[in-house]
Predict the structure.
Amino acid sequence: MNKQILFLLFFLISFNSTSQVPTNTISIIPQPVHILKGTGHFTFPKEVLIHAPDSPELVKTISILSERLSLPTGYQVSSANSSNGATIKLLLNDSDDSQLGKEGYTLSVTHTGIKIKANKPAGLFYGVQTLLQLLPSQIESKVLIKNINWVVPIVEIQDFPKLGWRGLMFDVARHFFTKDEVKQYIDAMSKYKYNVLHLHLTDDEGWRIEIKGYPKLTEIGAWNVKREGEFGDFIPPLANEPRNYGGFYTQEDIKELVRYAKDRFIEIMPEVDVPGHSLAAIASYPELSCTPDAVNYKVRSGEKIMDWSGGATPKALLDNTLCPANELAYSFMDSVISQLATLFPFEYIHLGGDEAPINFWQKNEQIKALMAREGIKNSTEVQGYFTRRVEKIVESKGKKMMAWDEVLEGGVSPTTAVMSWRGMKYGIEAALNKHEVVMSPTTYAYLDYMQSDVISEPRVYASLRLNKSYEFEPVPEGVDPQYIKGGQANLWTEQVYTIRQAEYMTWPRAFAIAESVWSPKDKKNWPEFFSRVEEHFKRLDFSETKYSPAVYDPIFKVGKTSDNKLTIDLSLEVEGLDIYYSFDNSFPDRFYPKYMGTLTAPIDAKQLKLITYKDKVPVGRMLTMPIADLKRRARL
Ligand code: ACM
């Protein structure tokens, strides 16, 4: 063999075994409390031994870790009886380390192995998530990846959450998501140390949970007419259109989901949204309504049923409320709540309370009689009466009630936990009045909002960019923090038809929310966070989880010159990127003009096309902004 061939062989062998040595950065989301970085790496052996305490709560943690490690690496992963010689040691502290609390952990990577310690199994689970984030991003792959050095940096981490409630809400009512899709959602959220999945199970468009004794809820209430496009203004369904779009979870499905979530240290909080948002229930059982015409109602398929032109209080075009003056509504709620209480071990049941229209109540004789009998002065108090009665039912089943912040208006009992969604202010008011509060304000945490400009996103009435979500601080100044249980982001799904789009809407904004509810305030840093987000984009690519690249979309600001010419200013959420553009309808790349300052559109231009680059790499998507649209925005 001549020297050249020998060299080539050596080159190939060494490249095969050590190519793609990962960079030495540590990119953990949410940012841990303390990271002390050492030098060098620990390299995983091809036979990985995991030693863990013999606890039923940890059986799944170990199998999840084993599977997550063995799939992409192809390594043999097994459990070790003794901690001696184990690659990964999971250990429960003999006596509690008070700083770590119930969910904290320490993680130590040395040249000889990995040790994760915690007071409780949840802490070990979170330590495992951090360990996986220390591995190269390819660890997220669902198939074998060859030629990777499976290493983790030498490091000492001490970590614990800021808040005990770290939630995501998934609306499975507006569009139905299968049990397996919900599991997929749970898998993704568990990697970022979320611990509450709030399932919005009922709404005008669907009732998604089997309730024994009320079969029509799922025979009728779970189904509507399939429509696609811009939800909300669909042509009303015709009488002969098939109502076969939707679905529901059987009680066995629910038990399976609760167990699946629990194995990942996530509690599921059910929400049955009443008294408003109840058309699916009323279409199934019109006798729950006070409106005789309810016998003709059908589950909504995205046609207009509400007039929002008057502002926050909607005017209903049909009566989608359970009737507070109707005893049948309370026996129905008793049955529903009793079954929810049995199915969901979580201590809270969410009973909605948002956006209940009052226009049908105002003219209803039964409601008027109720008001006279109970000395109720107005329709808001009618809802208060309903809420208090429903809360008594919840308490009779040994649970606590949570509801959207509107319930504060009708005279609510101090034991009701409040989820603040219309900004932070109702949460602040509730906390000052000693209610337990979860902050999930539209301002920072509404995942159904667009992530950038309407030209590049499915149209929703508002936009919420990643950098704004990152500003979320769930514990406001001047409020006793003991009343703020935590924070949550909400994914409403009117405009979300598939699990892929649910993922797109969730990530990366749920990274920002995860960090806002877990990491200390002084550890938050937007540019540094964004560099970690980009690392996690690679992870989402490997796990084939969809995410939005909207953070790279330019922000448009329009103006006009003194002689009424359109001016366009562009900016980005992040520094260090370049925008290239064209006005000639062709697709720009980095050899086109680079945006350097205010643009004036050429007189005949019809489109501004744009793309964002990081150095030589296009990172953003190709955007086409109609000039007519910009002129409209500039009132030209
Ligand atoms: C809500 O967004 N209607 C709670």
